[in-house]
Amino acid sequence: MASATNVLGKEVSRGVVLPEWIDNNAHMNVAYYALAFDLAVDALWDRFGMTTDHVRDANSSTFTLESHVTYRRELRQSEPYLITAQVMAFSEKGIHQFQRMYHVEEHYLAATCEWLHLHVDMKTRRVAPWPASILERIRACAIAQGEVIRPHEAGRKMQLNKPLFDTDGPT
Length: 171
Hints:
Thiol Ester Dehydrase, Chain A; alpha+beta; 6 strands; six-stranded antiparallel beta sheet
């Protein structure tokens, strides 16, 4: 069991696995991992100033370009989890961030989610530069996290070990 000191990233949200999130395998269904991670994105955006009010008043939001979830260990009904985030990279128009989901009491890594988001002008629905205040908060967050080690799961390619068939070539 990992200790609380092994929890990496900045905590952005907490929750409990709800009964309706449980699948036929008696654990949290994949769709609800995605939901929990997405809610954590919203919590991170709130810290950056990308609140519901901001989206409405400034016609400024983000669209997800890509995400990738990895599952490490199952969570079951009523188990508490926390999600952390780290900024991997950012630009004038986008952000690459990484989230980890931990079991609160046992501190094990349950899942990860890597995201690539682009800032969008909602009037034109086109990619646009971040508002200066949002960009500054993203920059401050990236600086405050200090030196970070690239997560093992980041940028991973999906593949089977020793496939019997592979579209990349003969096996």
